[in-house]
Design goal:
With 127 residues, the chain is α/β, with parallel strands linked by helices. It is 14% helix and 29% strand. The protein contains two helices and five strands; from the N terminus they run E-E-E-H-E-H-E. The longest helix is centred in the middle third of the chain and has 9 residues. It comes from Paenibacillus brasilensis.
C-alpha cells in the first residue's frame, strides 16, 4: 500500500504576524479566510486539494485541485471565489512555501488582502 511521503522543507522565517491568533470564532463574513492543503491519490499519483474557508460560517468559498503543491494551486482556488475578492480582509495560513511567495504576495496586494501566518512550529490554521 502506497503512503504519502511528506517533503521536508525549511520553515518560512517571514516576520509576518499571526493576526488571527487562534480566534476561530468570527462575527463578520470574509474577515478571515483560512486555507490549508490536503492530498489524495488519483490514478497512483498524489494530487493536492486547496480549500479556502470563511471562518464566519465555515463555508468553503474557494477550492482547487492538482498534481502540484504550489502557488498556482492556491491562485486557482482564489479564482473560484464568488464575489469580490476585495471583501476578504485577512488570509491566514501555515508557513508553507506555497502560501508565502512572490505570486501570493502579488495576489494579496492586488486585492488588498492582509496576510496572517500561524506561529512558527504551530501549523494550526483551522479549527
Amino acid at each position: 500500500m502506497a503512503q504519502y511521503k511528506p517533503y521536508k522543507t525549511a520553515c518560512n522565517e517571514a516576520a509576518t504576524a499571526n493576526i488571527l491568533n487562534r480566534e476561530f470564532d468570527q462575527t463578520e463574513t470574509r474577515r478571515f479566510v483560512v486555507s490549508d492543503l490536503t492530498y489524495v491519490k488519483v490514478q497512483h499519483q498524489w494530487h493536492y486539494i486547496c480549500v479556502l474557508v470563511d471562518l464566519f460560517n465555515r463555508e468553503i468559498i474557494g477550492h482547487s485541485a492538482g498534481p502540484n503543491k504550489d502557488a498556482a494551486l492556491i491562485s486557482r482556488a482564489f479564482a473560484t471565489v464568488q464575489g469580490d475578492l476585495h471583501q476578504i480582509q485577512w488570509f491566514h495560513t501555515d508557513r508553507g512555501s506555497e502560501f508565502k511567495n512572490e505570486k501570493m504576495d502579488e495576489l494579496l496586494e492586488t486585492f488588498e488582502i492582509g496576510r496572517s501566518l500561524s506561529m512558527k512550529g504551530c501549523p494550526y490554521t483551522m479549527p
